[in-house]
TrEMBL record:
Domain Pyridoxamine 5'-phosphate oxidase N-terminal: 10-126
The protein, known as: General stress protein
InterPro entries: Pyridox_Oxase_N, Split_barrel_FMN-bd, Stress-Dev_Protein
Amino acid sequence: MEQSEAVNRITEILSESKIGVLSTAQNNKPNARYMWFYNDGLTLYAKTNDKSPKYDELKDNPHAHVLLGFHDSQDHAFVEVYGNVERIDDQELIDWLWEKRDKEFFDSKESPHLKVLKIIPEDIKIMNDDEYGDVTLSL
């Protein structure tokens, strides 16, 4: 498979899948949680509270793993994203990501604790895809 085909398929899966698992590690112990993800091409974004344990974990160790997809397609295709996470405090980016359901977690999009995690992929694997098979894209 050509790289452009892999990028197109990965972007398709990322665009269709919004709920996934973010895994981090602290003191050599893994920690995983479900999160809402948004993508701009291959770059992923997630909102978080700067008081959450993951926010501190990512300060100490910015490496993360994300699973997205599976139930969102007939063949259960999903992606595994390995990358580095930047902790971002940018109101313009928060405005872009804000949704009505975020009011369950934050009073408003101006909440001082609302932050963005930007996941910059190093490797992305397409898994369980009947058409493409298992493919790894290294960036």
